[in-house]
Amino acid sequence: MGTQQLDNQQLNIDYKVDHFFEEKIAYYKDQPSGECAQYIPELKNVNPNYLACALLLPDGKIHLHGDYEIPFTLQSISKVISFIAACMYKGPSYVLDWVDVEPTGDPFNSILRFELKDKQKPFNPMINAGALTVASLLPGTTPTEKIQGVVHLLSSLIDKNVTINKKVFESEWETAYRNRALANFLKEHNLLASSVEDTLFTYINLCSVEINVEDLAKIGLILSLDGFDPVRQIQIIPAPIVRLTKILMFTCGMYNSSGKFAAFIGLPAKSGVSGGILGAVPPSLRHHPLLSDGCGLGIYGPAIDENGNSIKGTRLLEDFIQVYDIKIF
Ligand code: GLN
Questions:
Q1: Which residues, 6 or more positions from 302, have their beta carbon under 8 angstroms from its beta carbon?
Q2: Which of 79, 185, 310, 321 is paired with 28 by a 20 to 30 Å CA distance?
Q3: Domain with CATH 3.40.710.10 in the chain
Q4: Residue (of 4, 8, 13) closest to 293 by Cα position
C-alpha cells in the first residue's frame, strides 16, 4: 500500500472516531441528566449536563470532545494514584498486608463489614475503607508530605503541575461524617498507620486534586502500557505494580457496579463521584483499525447513578466499546 493510501486510511479512521464521539455527545447532551453527587456540597453545584471525553493513542494523537476544558476533581480516581504511590514507595507486599484485593458488592463508603467482624482488613484499595488505609501508609510523616508524594507522582504521569481545589476540599472536609466514622473504625482495629484526622486530611486533599479528561487519558495510556509513557519514552511505574492496579480496577474500580461494568464494558477503569472515569485499553487488540496499540481514555459527566458512577459517561463508554468492538478477553 502506498504512503498516500495509508495517510488517507488514517484520516478516515480519525474522521470516523471524531464523528462518533461528536454525535454521541450531542445525543446524550439532550437527554435528562440525573443529579451530581449530593453529599459533597461543592459538587452539587456543578452543571450536570457537562459531558466530555479524551482518547489518547500511543503515537501522541489525542481526540478531545465535548466539555473537555472543564476541570473536575479526582475524587475516587485518586485511589488509583495513591495505591500506586504506596506500592512504589513501600512495596506491594507491604501494602497488601494492610489491605485485601477482594471486591465487596457494598457501596464505596460502606461501614457494614467492620460492624460484622472484628479486625478485618479493608476489602480493597478502590473503596473508601481501603483507600483510607492506603492514605495512612503513604511515605512521609506529615499529611503534607504524604499528599506531596502522590501529587508528585501524578504530575510526573501527566507531565504538568496539578493543584488542589480548596473549595471542594473544605466542602468535603466539613461534611465527611461517614468517612470520619469509617476512619475511626479502621483506627479501632489498628488498620490505620496514622491518626484519624491526619488520614482524613490526606485522603480528602487527594480526592480534591483537579484534572481534566486529557489528564485522565494520559494516565490511562500509561496504565495500558504497563507503566511506560510512549510519548516521552520512559518507564514511570514498575510494570508489576501497574498490572496489579489494573486487576483491581477491573474487579473493584466501579464500586458495586464493578461486575456489570466488567461484563458489559470489560476494561480496567476507575470512577469518581465528580463524574470522571479513567479507562485503559491494553494493546492486545490485534489488527484493530484504531486501538491495536492500546489507548488511554478519560471521560467526564458529573451526573452520577446510585452507585456513584457517571451516568452519561458510562453510556458513552458502552457505546464506544460496542461500536469499536473492543474485547480484551
Ligand atoms: N471523596 C469521596 C468520598 O470519599 C470520593 C468517593 C468517590 O468518588 N466515590 O466520599
A1: 36, 37, 43, 46, 47, 48, 50, 72, 274, 275, 310
A2: 79
A3: 1-70+212-324, 76-208
A4: 13
Residue type, 107: P
Residues of the chain with pLDDT under 50: none
Tell me the H-state helices in the chain.
3-29, 41-44, 78-90, 92-98, 112-116, 128-137, 143-158, 166-173, 177-188, 196-207, 213-224, 239-252, 258-264, 311-323
Expressed in angstroms and rounded, the spacing between residue 278 Cα and the centre of ligand 1 is 15
CA of 273 to the centre of ligand 1 (A): 6
Q: C-alpha distances in angstroms, 257 versus 198, 210, 250, 271?
A: 30, 25, 11, 10
Domain 76-208 has CATH 3.30.530.20: no
Domain 1-70+212-324 CATH superfamily:
DD-peptidase/beta-lactamase superfamily (3.40.710.10)
CA distance 75 to 46: 14
Is 203 assigned a catalytic role?
yes
Query: Which of 273, 304, 307, 309 is the best mutation target for the ligand 1 pocket, counting ligand atoms within 8 Å of the beta carbon and taking the most?
Result: 273
79 is catalytic: yes
CA distance 95 to 245: 12
Q: What is the pLDDT of residue 114?
A: 74
CA torsion sign, 152 to 155 to 160 to 161?
Answer: negative
- The CA-atom distances, in angstroms, between 44 and each of 23, 38, 40, 49, 176 are 27, 5, 7, 12, 15
Angle between helices 311-323 and 3-29 (to 10 degrees): 150
Which of 172, 216, 257 has most ligand 1 atoms within 8 Å of CB, for mutation? 172
The reported pLDDT for the residue numbered 173 is 98
Note the pLDDT of residue 118.
66
